[in-house]
Amino acid sequence: MRAARRPKKVNIEPNIEALVRYLEAQNDILAAYLYGSYGTAHQTVLSDIDITLLFYRERRPDLRRLLSLEADIASICGEDDVNVLVLNDADVILQHRVLETGRVLVEKEPAAVSDFRERVFVIYGDFEPFYRAFCRDYDRVLREAFVCDRPRQGEGQDKLSQTQSGASSPTGKDSNPGLHGKVSGVPCGSPSATDLH
């Protein structure tokens, strides 16, 4: 286990060719991508290996198959900290992120991959404005609950009571407008490109 030894950044580059050969040999896998912080400026000693697999629609894996794949991939990479995700089942936000920023390991049939990519981008384009609005509202509610309603040090109990009762500021405007409007990184539920099938 990584926790049992001195932390260091994982490096699977020497094993990438072997990993690609293994993935190409699996007849149920259409495409595979390496995504997440690995190999980016955001990688740290705590970063793991995130691999997502796109399966042929008629060959979706059961749990036993998925666990077997994850064990094989971890063995090939020489790392215990490997996460394997089924891209078909991911929400459209993650599907879009993988296709936009992920590193291609395998893409067996360009036409089939392009069809999947097109579905993802169409659904993401329709859903993204609602996702942004939801995150803005979520962010606003969290800030109102945990930041705006928290009294500053030295403020009296009367001020605390006024804040908690929801009383507006004397001007009738938002007393803390600078706290709102930022899109939060809070994960939100979203549809998947495979929800239509």
From TrEMBL:
Residues 159-174 have a biased composition (Polar residues). Residues 153-197 are annotated as: Disordered. Residues 18-109 form the Polymerase beta nucleotidyltransferase domain. Gene3D superfamilies: Beta Polymerase, domain 2. InterPro entries: NT_sf, Polbeta, TA_antitoxin_MntA. Pfam families: Polbeta. NCBIfam families: MntA_antitoxin. SUPFAM superfamilies: Nucleotidyltransferase. This is Polymerase beta nucleotidyltransferase domain-containing protein.
